[in-house]
Amino acid sequence: MLIAADVSVAGWLGTYCYGNSCRDAPMVVPKEHLPDVTAKPDAQLAFSLAGGTKFAGWTASYSKGSNGPTTELGRGGDLYDSGTGDQLTSVSFAVPPPGDWALHFDLFFADGDAFYSWHLTVE
Fold first, then answer.
1. How many CA atoms lie within 13 A of 106 on its CB side?
2. Which residues pair with 64 in a beta bridge?
3. What is the pLDDT of residues 92-119, one digit of tens each?
4. How many CB atoms lie within 10 A of CB 14?
5. Is the dihedral of CA 33, 35, 36, 39 positive or negative?
6. Per-residue model confidence as pLDDT tens digits over 53-82
7. Residue 86 CA from chain centroid, whole number
8. What angle do CA 64, 62, 44 make, to 5 degrees?
9. What SS3 state is found at 43?
10. What phi and psi, each to the nearest 5 degrees, are found at residue 64?
11. In angstroms, rounded to a whole number, what is the distance separating the alpha carbons of residues 61 and 104?
12. Rounded to an integer, what distance in angstroms lies between the CA atom of residue 19 and that of residue 42?
């Protein structure tokens, strides 16, 4: 879930491997078809998984379109699990500059990874 201005929005789940399940998404759907999020220019976005599920690491980035070059917004935790396991339950990061963006969030677990996206409008 992405939280902006006290509103939670579930992301579009792309490629993932978690536990015994995997799914390949060849590309992200056009940003106009991604879940919508609106934020103020000085806002912080927060990400967490349902039920407080823990994860090991993350990266957040944005781009003009759903597929293409991205600019990193932040990263943290252990992106390449070194045995520390899943420790994080939520993270926050600043929004990109004002504009119409695709927001991407890569999530890393001790035993897998997942990719989420949103259509983000920064006023």
1. 16
2. none
3. 999 999 999 999 999 999 888 999 999 9
4. 20
5. negative
6. 999 999 999 999 999 899 999 999 987 766
7. 16
8. 130
9. coil
10. -70, -35
11. 5
12. 37
